[in-house]
UniProtKB/TrEMBL annotation:
Residues annotated as domain Thioredoxin: 1-87
Nucleotidyltransferase in keyword set: no
CDD domains the record matches: GRX_PICOT_like, TRX_PICOT
Main location: cytoplasm
GO biological process, one term: intracellular iron ion homeostasis
GO cellular component: cytosol; nucleus
Record-linked PROSITE patterns: GLUTAREDOXIN_2, THIOREDOXIN_2
Protein name from the UniProt record: GLRX3 protein
Tree of life domain: Eukaryota
Protein location: Cytoplasm, Cytosol
Originating organism: Sylvia atricapilla (blackcap)
This protein's UniProt keywords: Cytoplasm, Iron, Iron-sulfur, Metal-binding, Repeat
Length: 231
């Protein structure tokens, strides 16, 4: 009658290893819940029966009946589902962690392209050594060189975000670049994408001033550009 959570995983998927750590933490908080790891490719009949098409996938069982499902590496949602089905109120620590996860999720989705860096694009605060620019400064220069439209967050302005994002993204260093809420990588990966030409297809482009002006003057049949407003 107790809750059973089955994680369909694969050893080659790093996000599965990350979610196994989340499950281990949940197992300590919810001793009445049974957590099971099942290698999806090792049991193809079971995976097919339950429609497992990607990993990680989580199935929730009660009284031998499937009651819920979660596709993807979404730690906050997994925590919420375990708490709801287990009928346990979240502990203060779990609640605080959940709030941080929600906040980080909002931050990485705050703009189509988000750069988490040391300092700001105009004033990077990364350490520079002879013959080498700081990593954050290099990242900004690459994005500007490719006319990428991006927003940024100074990790020095919030220690909770600075430490929490490392776990959230499973990426220990900065800068970190996100597109549509998904981590693209750090400086080395961005350099590889630039060299291969993929960067221009992944990141959104800033609108040129000429195109922006054309869009504005054609916004309505008659457009008035004035000081102040009609009222």
């Amino acid at each position: 009658r107790s809750l059973v959570v089955v994680h369909f995983w694969a050893p080659w998927a790093p996000q599965c290893a990350q979610m196994n750590e989340v499950m281990a933490a949940l197992a300590q908080e919810h001793s009445q819940v049974t957590f099971v790891q099942l290698e999806a490719e090792a049991v193809p009949e079971v995976s097919e029966k339950y429609g497992i098409s990607s990993v990680p996938t989580f199935l929730f069982f009660k009284d031998c009946q499937k009651v819920d499902r979660l596709d993807g590496a979404h730690a906050p949602e997994l925590t919420q589902k375990v708490q709801r089905h287990a009928g346990a109120a979240p502990s203060p620590a779990a609640s605080a962690q959940q709030q941080l996860q929600t906040r980080l999720s909002k931050l990485v989705n705050a703009a189509p392209c988000m750069l988490f860096m040391k300092g700001s694009p105009k004033e990077p605060r990364c350490v520079e050594i002879p013959f080498f620019l700081g990593f954050s400064k290099q990242m900004v220069e690459i994005l500007n060189r490719h006319n990428v439209a991006f927003s940024s967050f100074d990790i020095f302005s919030d220690e909770e975000v600075r430490q929490g994002l490392k776990t959230f993204s499973n990426w220990p260093t900065y800068p970190q670049l996100y597109v549509s809420g998904e981590l693209i990588g750090g400086l080395d990966i961005i350099k590889e994408l630039e060299a291969s030409g993929e960067l221009d297809t992944i990141c959104p482009k800033a609108q040129k001033l000429e195109d922006r002006l054309k869009s504005l003057i054609n916004k309505a049949p008659v457009m008035l550009f004035m000081k102040g407003n009609k009222q």
